Amino acid sequence: MTGEIVTHRLDGSALPQRRARGATEPVDARLLRTIAAALPADMPPASALGVETALEAMADATKAAIAADLDCFIGWCVEEKRPPFPAGPEDLVRYLRHLEGKGKKPATLSRRMATIASAHRLVGLSEKDGLATDHPMVRNALRANRRRKGTVQRQAAPLRYGGALDTQGEVKGFTITALLEACGGDAQGLRDAALLSLGYDAGLRVSELTAAAVSHLEPEADGSGLLAIPRSKTDQLGSGSWAWISPESMRRVQAWLVESGIEDGPLFRRVGIDRRRARASVPPQPYHSIPGNTRHWQERLRGAPATRAQVTYTIGETSLTRQGVCAIYRRIALAAADAGLVDISGAKLSEAIAALSTHSLRVGLTQDLFAAGEDGAGIALTLRWSSPATALRYGRKLAVRSNAASRVLGKVRT
Questions:
Q1: Among 41, 109, 200, 203, which one is least packed by beta carbons within 10 Å?
Q2: What is the pLDDT of residue 406?
Q3: Is 159 helix (H, G, I), strand (E, B) or coil?
Q4: Helix axes 247-260, 187-202, angle to 10 degrees
Q5: Domain edge (last residue) among 101, 118, 149
């Protein structure tokens, strides 16, 4: 018997559970455990209230990053038999050289020093105590590293729109247009298309994308919409901001909401898929013909009717994770390549897919806006960048086409 039945359930408990690597430790506990293990026994105790308020002032992502960086620094100190607290300037310079020898970028070295400074303040050591990270020797070591290595940072591969915005045929590789075309019409495909379309329009960071909720959407009379962003990386105090959503993205989001049955809570969730193949009917079998040691002999005795192929989509209750979003981008990119929607193959295809990250949509929109002639200040405001310089870093080459020289000289030097 042929055919397929597609059903949907809004029941997160029915989702298959991924194997956990271990019990998840709260980020505060992890950070405090990391620091406590490295403190010397004779160090005066830090203010419990001071530590508590310092942790409350930090974002969870910041605390997780500090804990990860400290693990690296403390591991080096153990190998070199150096005290992590309080760290001396000569030890920090040696640590910086160790990191440079391992090929770490200047931005990573600067971040590690900032991490060590934050950890020292957390345990009661402040600038007045003369933090080693502020010592001229350490600053000179960072400056020398930047002179040797330069300050250009590797950026996420952009996912630009392509299509109607690619009037000069300059966009190569994966585009939003190609990825949207590769999305299917089932529950997973509708979610993926809504995720890509909304994330691109609003230039969302992955933390903003995973935090998006149904209640944050505000439809407009012309079919477009607004998305409330209660908090972001550059808005830790929660002042809030809004992003414009195109009519196309609003239609895609609505299609996903109707298909999934989601009415409130997180907008983008995990979709579990259970596929069962069609089975032909099995006629009843006489009792005397069934071997005595047969398992499930009752089923053979009764027989079984034919069953149709069935696909069950299970919609989770919690939002997608950062890793889940990245996996979705790469899965759709591979589907687009398999469908011949992009002209990439072989080793270059693997490299292009691996270069995609949760930041790719945001970088792609930034570059598209620069290519359209928008200025850095307007782009920074629209995409909630901390400064125009940050936005310019992602569109430096494209911004040249709309700078003062190109606008003035382009009219006379043709």
A1: 41
A2: 52
A3: coil
A4: 150
A5: 149
Q: For residue 8, give the nearest of 360, 220, 259, 329 by alpha carbon.
A: 259
Q: From CA 97, how far away is CA 80, in angstroms rounded?
A: 13
Q: Dmax of the chain from CA atoms?
A: 99
Going by C-alpha positions, the residue among 330, 314, 327 that lies closest to residue 275 is: 314
Tell me: do 279 and 263 sit in the same domain.
no
Q: Using alpha carbons only, how large is the chain's radius of gyration in Å?
A: 28
Instruction: Indicate whether 364 and 289 sit together in one domain.
Output: no
> Cα(285)–Cα(290) distance, rounded to whole angstroms?
7
Please tell me whether the peptide bond between 86 and the residue prior to it is cis, using omega within 30 degrees of 0. Answer: yes
CB 393 within 8 A of CB 155: yes
| Euclidean distance between CA atoms 202 and 383, whole angstroms | 7
Q: Is 311 helix (H, G, I), strand (E, B) or coil?
A: strand
| Same structural domain, 133 and 56 | yes
From 101, 100, 92, select the one nearest 73 (Cα to Cα): 92
Q: What is the mean pLDDT of residues 96-102?
A: 92
The closest alpha carbon to 72, from 118, 117, 112, belongs to 112
Same domain, 249 and 260: yes
| Residues contacting residue 347 through CB under 8 Å, at least 6 positions apart | none
Q: Are residues 131 and 277 in the same domain?
A: no
Q: What are phi and psi of 309, to 5 degrees?
A: -60, 145
Domain residue limits at 192? 163-268+320-401
- Residues 170, 398 contacting (CB under 8 angstroms): no
Q: What is the pTM of this model?
A: 0.71
Give the model's pLDDT for residue 1: 42
Burial of 4 (C-beta count, 10 Å sphere; 0-12/13-18/19+): exposed
Same-domain status, 199 and 282:
no
pLDDT tens digit sequence for 147-192: 887 755 556 788 888 877 766 666 778 899 999 999 999 999 999 9
375: confidence class by pLDDT, cuts 50, 70, 90: confident
Query: Are 338 and 388 in a shared domain?
Result: yes
314-333 pLDDT, tens digit each: 888 899 998 999 999 999 99
